[in-house]
Amino acid sequence: MQVVVERFAALVLKVAIIAAVMFVLVAALNGPSKLGIDLGYLAQTCLLFAGLVLLSGTVAMLCGALTGRRVWGIGGGAFVAVVGYVFNALGNQSADLEWLHGLSPYYWAFGNFPLTNGGQPIALLAFYGGSLLVAAATALVLRRRDIGV
């Protein structure tokens, strides 16, 4: 349990640093580049980005805990990222495929154009709440595993 908490905390810290650097850089370039981005919307977009990355990261932790193999963990996180991106891209191509947006975490995060319209609070709740649930599931899985085998 302690290992999962430590790894989850490290993941959260890394993602928070990346999101903060992204916020600072875009905010610094906002004025000189005349982008006209509202800083509140920028903060919401950075939080959505961080939530999307955190969800993929926690899925990777869960897959690694389930299988005991690092490569399967990386594959699980990559699966969420790549398949989510593909579903979003396909949903953008045709009206017949728009239903795929509902399966894409990229669309949940960026489908509402959060830089111009603001983020959706339900998406933030889904990302961060889902990440906590996946981390809790990871802790339960590791508790049941026989680490010595």
How would you characterize this protein structure?
The protein is mainly alpha-helical. Helices cover 78% and strands 0% of the residues. It has six helices and no strands. α1 (2-30) runs antiparallel to α2 (39-67), α2 (39-67) crosses α3 (70-93) and α2 packs parallel to α6. It is globular, with a radius of gyration of 17 Å. The two termini are 18 Å apart. The mean pLDDT is 93.
Mean pLDDT over the residues: 93
Number of helices: 6
SSE order: HHHHHH
Rg: 17 Å
Principal-axis shape equals globular
> Low-confidence parts lasting 5 or more residues at pLDDT below 50?
none
Task: State the separation between the terminal residues, measured CA to CA.
Answer: 18 Å
Q: Give the structural class.
A: mainly alpha
User: What about the largest sheet?
Assistant: none
> What's the total count of β strands?
0
Helix content: over 70%
Strand content: under 5%
Secondary structure layout:
Blueprint: H1 2-30, H2 39-67, H3 70-93, H4 105-110, H5 114-117, H6 121-144
Which features does this protein show?
149 residues; mainly alpha; 6 helices
Summarize the structure.
The protein is an all-alpha fold and 149 residues long. 78% of the residues lie in helices and 0% in strands.
